[in-house]
Amino acid sequence: MVDISGPQLRSALRGLDKVWVTIVAILAALAVFAPAQIWPTLLFTSKALLNTAPFIIFAVLAVAYMKATGAETLLAKAFEGNQVRMIVLAALLGGLSPFCSCEVIPFIAAMLALGAPLGAVMAFWLASPLMDPAMFLITSGELGWNFAIGKTVSAVGLGLFGGFATMLLARTVVFADPLREKPQVGGCCGVQKPFEGKPVWMFWIEDNRTQVFRHNILENGHFLLKWLALAYVFESLMVRYIPAEKIADVLGGEGIGTIILGAVVGAPAYLNGYAAVPLVSGLLEKGMSDGAAMSFVVAGGVSSIPAAIAVWALVKPRVFAAYLGFAITGAVLAGLAWQAVA
């Protein structure tokens, strides 16, 4: 009999994936306290994952292709030339790039070391965690193309807002000497160094690029599967146990109050960009206003723990506070705009 007590047991527990552990814990709790709900939850989650599967597969393949070809190197051009041009390109590319929040850290650290202006960096920081090719497809599959396009426009708009505001305030005490003395450039996930040089579109001719393609398919596929599974489990319980009128009373209606509340709630309550999509879908069905939904996903995406760590690791607290301020203000503006056109 093998003894796995003490340090070995703690090491084994640390190695468990917290998302899958949470899913198992929820199902175990249902088995004890509400056994009749287990099958409906599993059925709801399975059906939702099957409906989303085509978007997941396409998104995983698209991101893996971008990684394997080295198309990420094209982003560096956003940080060359006139500062206004840099901010515009940084916001556009940040809203469309395949970087996760962890991968932004070493990329931005390198750009800052090369002397890129903080306004362009801020534009990229704000836009990057809100949208990427995979998230666009997942969002469009669950919430519709209009919402996905609206969130993309909001991501770029938030980047422009924060970038130009930072440029105008660059000489103030808030943004003076913004970097930490020894920035932490590590990531919270397996960050791969991007390929250098021109992209190789036919990546399969090189073994190392083929390995990167295969690795990203497995890594991103698992990442999306676990977070969406958790989100659908939460959504099934939300549909079952949260009265629709409660959501409608708090986050319904067309007033600015619900949009501000959506941003304020979204900042600390946001789990993950992919997990938020089905949760927002459930909230909309319960009566959440369109504007509150948009402010929730925008504020939550920028202030989520991985995205916030990327900023906190590199800059001083006052710059981090400005980052959060831009996020909340931009989220409210995005919610108001979406409420007006939705």
Question: What descriptors fit this protein?
Answer:
342 residues, single chain, 15 helices, 72% helix, mainly alpha
Main beta sheet strand tally, sense and closure? none
Spatial gap, N to C terminus: 63 Å
Shape category: globular
What's the pLDDT, averaged over the residues? 80
The chain-level structural class is: mainly alpha
Rg measurement, Å: 21 Å
Helix content: over 70%
Q: How many β strands by DSSP?
A: 0
H-E string: HHHHHHHHHHHHHHH
How would you sum up this structure, described in words?
- This protein is 72% helix and 0% strand.
- It is built from 15 helices and no strands.
- By secondary structure, the chain is mainly alpha-helical.
Provide a short characterization of the protein structure.
With 342 residues, the chain is an all-alpha fold.
Secondary structure topology:
Layout: H1 7-14, H2 18-33, H3 38-69, H4 83-96, H5 101-113, H6 118-127, H7 133-143, H8 145-168, H9 207-241, H10 244-251, H11 256-269, H12 273-286, H13 290-303, H14 305-312, H15 317-341
Helix pairs in contact: 2-9, 3-7, 3-9, 4-6, 4-8, 5-14, 6-8, 7-8, 7-12, 8-15, 9-12, 11-13, 11-15, 12-13, 13-15
